Amino acid sequence: MSGHGGGAVAAVDLGATSGRVIVGRVDGRAGTLELDQVARFPNGPVRLASGLHWDITGLYRDLTRGLADAFRREPRIASVGVDSWAVDYGLLRGGRLLGEPFHYRDARNEAAVNTVHRVAPFAELYRRNGLQFLPFNTVYQLAAERDGGWLELADSLLLIPDLIGFLLTGTQVAERTNASTTGLIGVRTGEWDLELIERLGLEASVMPRLISPGDSLGALRPDVAADLGAPAGIEVVAVGSHDTASAVVAVPMHAESAAYISCGTWGLVGVELDAPVISDAAREANFTNEGGVDGRIRFLHNVMGLWLLSESVRWWERDGETIDLPALLAEAAAVPGEVAVFDADDPRFMAPGDLPGRIAEWCVEHGLRAPQSRAEFARSIVESLAAAFAGAVRDASILSGVDVETIHIVGGGALNGLLCQRTADRAGIPVLAGPVEATAIGNVLVQARAAGFVSGDLDALRALVARAFPPTRYAPRV
Fold this sequence. Notes:
Strand order of the largest sheet: 16-17-15-14-18-19-20
Helix content: 25-40%
CATH superfamily of the largest domain: ATPase, nucleotide binding domain
Strand content: 15-25%
CATH topology of the largest domain: Nucleotidyltransferase, domain 5
Number of strands: 20
Shape: globular
């Protein structure tokens, strides 16, 4: 792998529970890749009278403070890139936000699903957009927005990372990997499906022009650059702005024989392909075809993920108690005998609240002994996630034709040794865990390649990741 000498970039990585600003230093000639986290801040939903929203103003305040810290620490930063969770968006008119963006877990989407499917049945939607059914996909949110009368007030719609990019640069665009999660992009064309948009009574005029990872949004606005202490002309570069698209860039895998699990709040389980799979079997298995960097397809299934554990812990801590998660997982690993394995994808686990109570309720309904202690609940969650992950890997292999020999777990789940081991055990396939910061690494690498600090295709980028962040191997136990 070569490049034109090393350099630094700033990655803004926004997750559903926290955000980070990371400085990445990359030198393709030397084969080095380093990350320096300069800021971390909480993120989460805010319940207003109108429903569950994101505090986008607070999020922008926190990330710009983080960027200011980054420029103080590393004055040679060449560009900024932003990734976030998918599907959510802001509506604007005249460049002004019409309200705080809705959170994808808001209940308003439920009625909109039937509204959309009456016009375009799910089987047809799948042929057109290749997306698994999730009740919060942007297409359903926009139907709710239309029915509430808000869509007609807007002259533009920007997905969360594109909204941040607009606030930084003044440029309104839609980056393709995240746009592919809206349900309004043709799975074969990669362009807005204008006929579907019109049939659903949505406004094609609010959809911005599409750009690809590596494209520039333009320079920071002069006032923003001044606030950040950044040199004039620093560009914001589109990355795989859907955080999973960035994470998959940094999976140190051979795509022809591997599956990946990007494991954080959600567990995204799948394989990387050259072309979509939109068969009836893929639709029935609820697999999605989302855009990846360099035109690849992320063929995957959403599993509820570590949300099940983090929300359970939050529930237990609601009266002020603090739970030591590593200690809880150690206790979970020591639980003797079998524990209940529940359906991690059951919709009842989607909303915030008493997840332990809902897990116990599911177990009783299905004739299983409900967990009795926090350690048993944690073990039950881990076993259920491992079972769901192993099942999704098997389905991905069968549906795509990829002969999976290795499972790569990246993201926060790579730190959960019990989850990694039990996934290997249940799948009967070795698990390679790491890097933990895959999303930020993928963000950094796409920027670094655009800047000429590194060159090559995804295989070359992944080889650099494997050298810089060697994964931990978990062999399946007989």
